[in-house]
Amino acid sequence: MAKQLFEWDYSSYPGAKKYPKLFEPVQIGNLLIPNRIKYAATEDNFNDHTGFITDADVAYIRRRAEGVVGGLCFMQGVYMDEARKGQGYVGQAACWDDKYIPGLKKIADAIHAEKAVAGFQLMDCGRVGAVEVPSGHGPSTVPQRLRIFKPMYEMTKEEIKEMVQQHVDATKRGIEAGFDIIEISGIVGYHISNFISSYTNRRTDEYGGDIRGRMKAVVEIIQGVKEVCGPDIPVGIRLCAEELLDDVRGNTPEESMESYKIAEEAGADYISVTAGWQESIVPVISRDVPMGSWVHLAKRAKEHVNIPVQMAYRLFLPELPEKAITAGELDIWEICRSMIADPLMPKKVLEDRQEEIRHCVACNLCLARLFRDAPMTCYINPVCAHEHDENFFPKPVEEDDEKEIIIVGAGPAGLECAYVAAQRGHEVHVYDKREEVGGTILEASKAPYGDEELMTCINYQKTMCKKYGVEFHLGTEVTDELIQDEMPDSVVLATGPLYPEIRGTVGEGAKIVNVLDVLGGTAEVGDNVVVWGNRKPGIGCALLLANQGKKVTIVGKEKTAGFDVNPSFKWRYMIYLRQNRVMAYNDCDIEEVKEGEVIVKTYDGYRFPLKCNTVVISERGANEGLKAVVQGEGIELFVIGDALVPRNMSSAVHDGYRIGLRI
Amino acid sequence: MPVNAEKEITTLWRNLHTAQNEICKTYYRWREVALEIAGPEAKPLDVALKAAEMMGVDIGKHFLPRLNWLKGEEPFMLNLGRQLAGLWAGEGAVTTVEQGESPSEILIRCTRDPWPTAARQYGVPMEEVALTREKLFQTILVDVSVFFSVPLKIEMLKAIPRGEGEWVFRLYKDEN
Ligand SMILES: Cc1cc2nc3c(=O)[nH]c(=O)nc-3n(C[C@H](O)[C@H](O)[C@H](O)COP(=O)(O)O)c2cc1C
Ligand code: SF4
After folding, report:
1. Residue from A257, A380, A375, A360 nearest A312 by CA
2. Strand segments (E) across A465-532
3. Is 90 exceeded by the pLDDT of residue A554?
4. Do A184 and A198 sit in the same domain of this protein?
5. Same domain membership, residue A592 and residue A510
6. What is the ipTM of this complex?
7. CA–CA separation, A407 vs A493, rounded Å?
8. Which residues, at least 6 apart from A112, have a Cβ–Cβ distance to it below 8 Å?
9. What is the tally of helices (H) and strands (E) in chain B?
10. Is there a contact between A580 and A477 (Cβ–Cβ < 8 Å)?
């Protein structure tokens, strides 16, 4: 009989009726998991730089354990060698010695405290490792394509045996710490996948050659780990279904499926299906990849193995895994970024509070931070990385301190601030001259390659404002007189940016339009367009126009186009600009606009003409409007979002949240 | 003020050529520094070849993200040839890339090169100029070969510093 660790009864929850498959039990090895939900292992760089678990990491994981409502909750992958070649992140948890067990126990206990199943992951980062040492280890010496990673050296057979033993020893420690299930991570170019791939494994001994040879080390690991786990602790493995490395002669999909079968034969209790490598040139999880794009890989896996199949990868809405499980294409819904963005996401699904989910916008900032040795943060979730700090959660204000607050602007900054302040007990009035909430995101979400998902942030904020009783005054422009009449206790200016005029000469017949009008489809735009501004709004607008067949050129003062987009997403925009033949002149300004052309001036004074019949203004500046009257009346003033300094949606949300907490 | 295209281009062009000349001169100035530090025992050609090797390995790493085997062998070889020629052109050379006799053979031709001229000013033997270029290209290919599992070779068929009027390099896949 399969063992169930905690009792859960979902029968009275509306979400379980809506998504019956997600809340159905599933057996993995001899363990019965009450539902089909798994928080997938997530490196966060929160631990100390010698691999010891911190309180921040424990608090982070506890929130996610609460979120899986009895399902699987995995901690980040641990590295297992004292030489630190397997360490991929400065704050990665270590497990090469018994001294790490007490810290790991805190994680297992935190997960159990939420009645969830505690998962322990073994992750030697291989080619992506050696973050603190000069070189890393791998099956063969294959140069790195991305220069941020360290050179790799071929392991001897003795070193391979040692590496297998490290997995076994770390497993013993994980079990002693109290974990219920073990996972070996062979994801996206880490050590296990380096052995399996024909791209990185060029060995001619028994650990190389055909797919069986390349799987030999992996089989030894699975068998060794299984032996210490015994019948009661299941062992799973994350393996690539498609490496997407054809350009460097990686594995074929057939070889990948063969690796699944070999893992099953070796005793794996489940397969977690992954796609792509860090080094792959094919996008896998960024916003430009539609949700659900990779489910066919889980289906393929199901056709090749008999053990349960799990998968994440842009399954951001419960409808997608529910459908896949019903169709027999998937067994368990893995979630990573959706639960970075909203740790309680599946819990909200269970309670049928889906509109209260703060959705991940697939920007990959979380990943970009890890590769820059910084603690993980989230673009959209201001609490991420602060779960251990009670000051980051809204606290009710004393009755005497309740304020009447006017927030000017119903964009992401204003809305975020509004519901947080209202949740704390303030009386909050949001004004906007538009008839709709959303601010500039209403237009920004019209840019191509997935930007419509930005509206999920506004929809969430709208729901929360409604929940906490924020009063809206839409279609109302706030004037000095309105402030003087209302005389609130505080004013928050979230009015969005101002769009400056071109500094140079503007001649007769020049056509100049605003980026919002272009994105919103209300401006008429000619065939030869110059977009002034090389940050994200300019890029989004340029791509929209290029998609309409126009010849678009970007001219902007930043040194690189998209400097405000994180590197883990920016490369996508650079490719789209190239594909759409959009030229970007960076470190440049517009000196003159005439009928039919603009004169561009480079930072060092060169000037050249560009054919152009419409200039789109996407440069932005701070917005000082209403500041004088608020200060003049002695009213408490806060300026947030683009009105303070034009940045991105993340800064708006984070500004709004923090001021909402403080006010 | 209207743009005077001729003036803008002339200034840019002049600055480009100054920069290109400086690349060669800076290299030869550093060569003198290296030889002085290495002492009288060191053979200048050995020092130059070691420098070419170190630079080549580093340049090769920059080539990796820009190459793609997926497009097929012929475009891959052509692209690689263009990258080598482009590197040289950036230094002021006039280069062309041609398909050789087979899909895996590329000829890189250079009809004008600022390096021998600069070398002469610093008293560098012409044979060293020829061998350094060859070594640079050979070492660039080392990482590229390993990375893509393609045995790449390059050989110098002609060299301006040898008085042969042009440089010709044969880039090919070594099937043996
Ligand atoms: C910030 C971050 C850290 C991750 N850390 C790990 C890890 O430690 N181990 C692992 O196997 N996968 C790791 N992954 C991969 C995720 O578990 C997941 O498979 C991937 O993000 C795709 O799922 P998603 O679309 O739900 O985010 C990480 C992903 C992210 C974004
Ligand atoms: S940082 Fe971006 S990708 Fe990562 S979880 Fe947050 S919204 Fe999603």
Report:
1. A360
2. 471-474, 490-493, 505-506, 512-514, 528-532
3. yes
4. yes
5. yes
6. 0.85
7. 6
8. A5, A118, A178
9. 5, 4
10. no
Domain-embedded: residue A468: yes
Average pLDDT over residues B82-89: 97
User: What is the rounded average pLDDT of the residues A472-493?
Assistant: 98
Residues of B with CB under 8 A from a CB of A: 3, 5, 8, 11-12, 60-61, 64-65, 68-71, 143, 146-149
Contact A247 B68 (CB under 8 A): yes
How high is the pLDDT of residue A188?
83
Q: Which domain holds residue B16?
A: 5-173
Inter-chain touch B146–A143, beta carbons under 8 Å: yes
- Predicted confidence at residue B176, as pLDDT, reads 73
The domain that contains A557 carries what CATH number?
Answer: 3.50.50.60
Asked whether residue A153 is domain-assigned, the answer is: yes
Across the range B59-66, mean pLDDT stands at 92
- Asked if the structure places residue A362 within a domain, the reply is yes
Identify the CA nearest to A276 among candidates A400, A364, A370, A169: A364
Look at chain B and report how many structural domains it folds into.
Answer: 1
For chain A positions 168-207, those within 8 Å of chain B (CB to CB) are 202
How many angstroms is it from A40 CA to the middle of ligand 1? 6
Q: Confidence band (pLDDT; 50, 70, 90) for A219?
A: very high
Please name which of A282, A271, A348, A278 lies closest in space to residue A304, comparing C-alpha atoms: A271
- For ligand 2, residues with CB inside 6 Å are A 337, 340-341, 360-366, 378-381
Give the Cα separation of B123 and A141 in Å (integer): 40
In a domain, A297, yes or no: yes
pLDDT at B1 over 80: no
- Domain end (from A599, A617, A635): A617
Q: Does A604 touch chain B (CB under 8 A)?
A: no
Q: The CATH number of the domain where B23 resides is what?
A: 3.30.1380
Is the pTM higher than 0.80? The answer reads yes
Same domain, yes or no: A459 and A596: no
A264, pLDDT greater than 80: yes
- Whether residues A658 and A557 share a domain: the answer is no
The amino acid at B71: K
Range of the domain at A548: 505-617
Q: Which ligand is nearest to the CA of A343?
A: 2
Residue B8 is predicted with a pLDDT of 93
A71 shares its domain with A169: yes
Q: Is residue A180 domain-shared with residue A284, that is, in the same domain?
A: yes
Asked whether the predicted pLDDT for residue A645 surpasses 90, the reply is yes
Looking at the structure, do residues A337 and A264 belong to the same domain, yes or no? yes
d(Cα B91, Cα B59) in Å, to the nearest integer? 14
Of A248, A281, A599, nearest to B147 by CB-CB distance is A248
* Mean pLDDT across B130-149: 96
- Give A325-340 as a DSSP string: HHTTS-SEEEESHHHH
Percent of chain A with pLDDT over 90: 96
